[in-house]
Amino acid sequence: MDRARVAPRPLPFHLLEEITDGFSEERKLGAGAYGSVYKGQHKNGEIIAIKKLHSMPKLNNQQFQKEYLNLATLQHQNIVRLVGYCHETRGEYIEFNGRTIFAENQHMALCFEYMCNGSLDNCLQDESSGHDWKTRYKIIKGICKGLKYLHEELNPPIYHLDLKPANILLDEQMNPKIADFGLSKFFGDERTRVSASAIGTIGYLPPEYINCSLVSNKLDVFSLGVIIIKTMTGHLGYSQSAEMPSEEFIDLVQEKWKNRIQGPSVDDIDSCAELVKTCIKIALNCVDADRHKRPNIGDIIRELDETEIMTQFSQAVTIDPGSTSLDEQDESGFLEVHPHQLRFLFFELNKAICPLLLSNSTEDNVAFRILSENHMEELSELSGVVPPRSTQTYWLVMKKQPPANTSEFSVTLESCIAHEDIADGDDQFLPEVLELTQGNKVHKVTLMAVTSERTRSGVTKVIYRVDAAVPVDHHLTQIDVHPTEPWILASHRRGGVSIWNYETQERVMTLKNLAPTDMMRSVKFIARKRWFMAGDFHGWIHVHSFAMNDEVTKFKGHDGAVISLVVHPSDPLVVSSSVDRHIKLWNWKAGWRCVRKLKAHLNNVEKVLFNPWDSNCLASVGNDNMLKIWKISSPLPVTILDCDEHQLTVDYFHPGGDRQYIVTGSVSGKARVYMQYTWIFSSSPQ
């Protein structure tokens, strides 16, 4: 969905100088033919990319205004957004022919949203390394969507004319955004600044332009084809594609990706491989020497969409070969199933569980049961009734491990429209269900199930036991474990902090009087700085160097006890939460300035935690019964879930594949599990 239109704001040149440290080299992100790009950071923490344009005699006010209007009207999730601009003329003393003279100097800049992952050009590698297939496909599909917007959704259309990996920028989620479109057209008189060609970049220009200077929308399509090939095969892939027949190249690329794609089942790998084949075929059609044979961007999107639908369906369900009725083989069935592949993780020696999400979009009750022809001894029976227009989460339980040579097996989900009397019973798939539903078809779907080998041998046991209490204080309030050293950091009720080596059973450091009149409520290592921090009962945050055994700083962070501290995995950011209901983000490179303040919960914010697979997201829980998911760039939560009771802790869990879960723990001792895809609650098995 396109974003709401927000007009770019005028920014004075002195402000741009200030937030880029005078356009310093340390702030430079890159340079091009028309200007250099700098990273600017406002006092409120907002980061923007500032393209300071070179002075050009033929760049007059009318031309700049026209270009600004072209950029300002573009609103699409795959187009870099213009957020500000500067166009000033100042009288300044400058050096000219060995003399200092007073002259008017024109300053022009275009300010864009900042893309933290840089350009696609910087991360292109061959197919055997770098980003996985799902990330690369997201990039390919996003570029196509952005180009479709420019070519088919604008009137008049815009042709980019210089599409290349360096002009595809990537945000924190690796979403691609097209940048620098239209500049070659705008700065057409400054041709010597780009290349010998009037527009574009050698290697991405089609033969009709090189030979005859012909420009059309098919020029961009040619460039798109080169980008897709390089995204899938690396920088050398395009030249390789020209050295062999198309079908041979398609088979080569598909086979290489099929060998690399990690899938828990053959269906998963085959589905991704089909998308690989479609993408590389599209790319080769895009770089056809005859521009009339190249597809339109709308045709490309449609082909990708159709392939996605077919692969998702084939991956989701396999119809039981015993079904004979056309109604029985209707691809939609009665229930939508998630996940399509069941993964059993053995947390205990002889027991494993797997959540199963069933959605009923019909107006009738749907009865179901799970069968496994060869593994009913290991798999607990599961049956029930899903009410109309509802989603239910069930737990499949394996009572014991299957034979050692069985890592993958199939289960069958049977479902049918149920008589209303069934729903009023004991929620079981009754033996007489077929009699009560005479005339209704039974839909059978085969799901693949796998067991996790990596956790089968794991046995929980005590490895080290450390008495981490100092003599004057036998009450620990919180601990943290160093990621690389064998150390435990502990906070104490009477204001002390200690570090213990759990291998040698010796105390590394003790600070009894870090806050002598206060209780320490939270502690956290900042390993890469060789610091630790501690939050006390009255809202002070203490930062200490364990390498130098010296105080780094301390500051008043909250109006109440600091309950939780967490460190960003890569950026110089610390997140704190408190009984004052707030979450705050602190930047230690900016003198521990608070860069974001979130009024997070109605009462105590008990725990905050960064998502280990998306460090720009964090989760929080509080005693207002709520679980909230946040983007650190936004003051508002992206998801709010009611957990029904006071929550004390939260953690992320990644069992493998592309699934993620959030687990919360409550004061009553109950654990709640939420699926990433829909953040739907899955209760623990009783």
Brief digest:
The chain is an alpha+beta fold.
Could you walk me through the main structural features you see in this protein, from its secondary elements to its overall organization?
Helix 7 (217-233) packs antiparallel against helix 10 (266-286), helix 9 packs antiparallel against helix 10 (266-286) and helix 10 (266-286) packs antiparallel against helix 11. By secondary structure, this protein is an alpha+beta fold. The chain is flat, with a radius of gyration of 30 Å. The protein is built from 13 helices and 37 strands. It has four domains: 9-113, 2-Layer Sandwich (Phosphorylase Kinase, domain 1), CATH 3.30.200.20; 121-314, Transferase(Phosphotransferase) domain 1 (Transferase(Phosphotransferase), domain 1, Orthogonal Bundle), CATH 1.10.510.10; 319-451, Immunoglobulins (Immunoglobulin-like, Sandwich); 557-686, YVTN repeat-like/Quinoprotein amine dehydrogenase (Methylamine Dehydrogenase, Chain H, 7 Propeller). The model is unreliable at 182-197, 313-332, 423-431, 453-461, 469-473 and 677-686 (pLDDT under 50). Helices cover 20% and strands 36% of the residues. The strands form eight sheets. Strands 9, 10, 11, 12, 13, 14, 15, 16 and 17 form a nine-stranded mixed beta sheet that branches. Strands 1-5-6-4-3-2 form a six-stranded mixed beta sheet, sandwiched between helices.
